[in-house]
Specification:
The protein has 177 residues and is an all-alpha fold. Helix content is 77%, strand content 0%. The radius of gyration is 21 Å and the shape is elongated. The protein is built from six helices and no strands. The structure holds fe (ii) ion. Fe (ii) ion binds next to loops.
């Protein structure tokens, strides 16, 4: 019995040490926390836009069905692949990555997908606004990452900005004559 208690004490001590491992990558604790918080908002925005785009892939109707069904698939696939590097950057900075509908709902700057599927061109308008909103979230974080010399985050933000601004342009073009 005494031996068991000694063993569990040892295990508890080991767990405490592991939970408190210091991170020393040259970015202050305060900056790591602030950048991780900004990345959590970017993750929530990206995940929300992913789900809306997949929803529209399923529910689009009308004469542009084939074009939009295929285009939305390419876009939701790209967004789905984007969430993993964002979440793993948060982990690399020593913070917990959010990953629930409740957390994403609280963090996201984008509205949830409409309950009833809109007309095809309204879907396009909603996605343009979504890509622009994600771009604003990424851009807002950039000066902080830059000032903290967090190059991996700055690089990730640059890549995401390029994609969101390009996708917004392509979708916007569908709305013009
Ligand atoms: Fe499909």
């Amino acid at each position: 019995m005494a031996k068991e208690s000694k063993t569990s004490k040892k295990a508890a001590a080991a767990a405490a040490v592991s939970a408190g491992v210091q991170i020393n990558i040259g970015i202050s604790d305060k900056d790591r926390a602030a950048i991780a918080q900004g990345l959590s908002r970017l993750l929530a925005d990206t995940y929300t836009l992913y789900l809306t785009t997949h929803n529209f892939h399923w529910n689009v109707t009308g004469p542009m069905f084939n074009t939009l069904h295929t285009m939305f698939m390419a876009q939701y696939t790209e967004l789905w692949n984007a969430v993993d590097p964002i979440a793993e950057r948060i982990r690399s900075l020593g913070h917990v990555a959010p990953g629930s509908y409740a957390a994403f709902g609280a963090l996201s700057s984008l509205p949830d997908a409409p309950a009833q599927p809109p007309k095809a061109l309204e879907m396009v308008r909603i996605l343009v606004a979504g890509h622009e909103a994600v771009a604003r979230t990424a851009r807002e974080l950039f000066p902080l990452a830059d000032a903290a010399s967090d190059e991996p985050t700055a690089d990730l933000l640059t890549q995401r900005l390029t994609i969101h601004e390009q996708t917004a342009w392509m979708l916007r073009s569908l709305l013009e004559d």
